[in-house]
Specification:
Blueprint lengths: L1 E5 L6 H9 L7 E10 L5 E8 L6 E6 L8 E2 L2 E3 L1 H13 L5 E7 L1 H4 L4 H10 L5 E6 L8 H4 L4 E5 L8 H10 L1 H5 L3 H16 L3 H16 L3 E3 L4 E4 L4 E5 L2 E2 L2 H4 L13 H9 L3
Parallel strand pairs: 1-8, 1-9, 2-7, 7-8
Antiparallel strand pairs: 2-3, 3-4, 4-6, 5-6, 10-11, 11-12, 12-13
């Protein structure tokens, strides 16, 4: 499973990563995270990369003053060797469930082979969850990642960055269910989740991860010519076309004010049909 977080600079992508990281510990997690360097006035003057785990140290990869280099991104001079060493550290630690790469950006693109190396990791990923940040702007080096429908691309915003942590943790927890989807189902799931997050639809983002994914992977959907039966733990429901017999869709009981479009059973059937 490959997950990409994108968003405008300063929106909180690395902060989301940091909160995910605190929920895990080696040997479950490895990778690197990039942090800003600020001077006494609070102005940003560079970036450091630090490996995740014990006995790791910060490596300055870009600085406006302290690095002597002919390679620059904006006002920052780039230490190419440091960038490559960071990527080497990530590759050496590919034995964990969760691999964090922060980030796929302009600094990394200046070091020959680094972006290609990350792309190879994504393409050949069979057993890991790779969680990475990626530049927001339309950069040529970023397009192969963003346009690949096998990757889950999530846009971080001020409105969703808090609950996005819950979505990501649930997604990581449900990796086994995700792995059991067909290729077409994965692509549909990725597109729908990306859409829900972009539209700030917290309810449906969490439902497709926590409910629909489970219904499909556990073979809890039985189809006939005209309808689909969803077999739940305590009850079953029938989906016919765009309607469902569940209380939420019918607006019964505690779901009196719920939206019919929030029905996870209909959502699960749409995912099931993509097999």
């Amino acid at each position: 499973m490959n997950i990409l977080l994108t968003g405008k600079p300063g929106i909180g992508k690395s902060t989301v990563l940091e909160k995910i990281i605190t929920s895990f510990a080696p040997p479950e997690i490895s990778g690197c995270i990039t942090q800003e360097i600020r001077d006494s006035s609070g102005d940003r003057i560079g970036f450091v990369s630090q490996g995740i785990g014990k006995n790791t140290r910060e490596i300055c990869i870009a600085h406006s003053l302290d690095i002597d280099s002919d390679v620059c991104v904006g006002k920052y001079n780039i230490d190419i060797t440091a960038v490559k060493n960071t990527m080497s550290f990530v590759k050496k630690k590919l034995t964990t469930q969760l691999v964090v790469i922060d980030e796929i950006g302009r600094i990394q693109s200046k070091a020959a082979g680094v972006i290609d190396g990350i792309y190879d990791l994504f393409q050949n990923n069979k057993n890991h969850i790779i969680l990475s940040t990626i530049v927001y702007d339309d950069e040529s080096f970023a397009r192969p990642f963003k346009e690949n429908l096998s990757n889950i691309l999530l846009k971080v915003s001020l409105e969703n960055r808090e609950y996005l942590i819950d979505v990501l943790l649930s997604l990581i927890e449900n990796k086994k269910h995700y792995s059991e989807l067909s290729i077409n189902q994965k692509k549909y799931f990725n597109e729908r989740l990306s859409h829900y997050v972009a539209m700030n639809n917290k309810t449906m983002a969490l439902k497709i991860v926590n409910h629909s994914l489970m219904y499909v992977s556990k073979s809890s959907i039985i189809s006939s010519k005209e309808d689909y039966a969803i077999l739940g733990q305590s009850s079953s429901h029938i989906v016919q076309g765009n309607s469902c017999t569940c209380d939420l869709y019918r607006g019964r009981g505690k779901y009196l004010k719920a939206r019919q479009s929030d029905c996870s059973h209909i959502q699960a059937v749409e995912l099931f049909k993509k097999q």
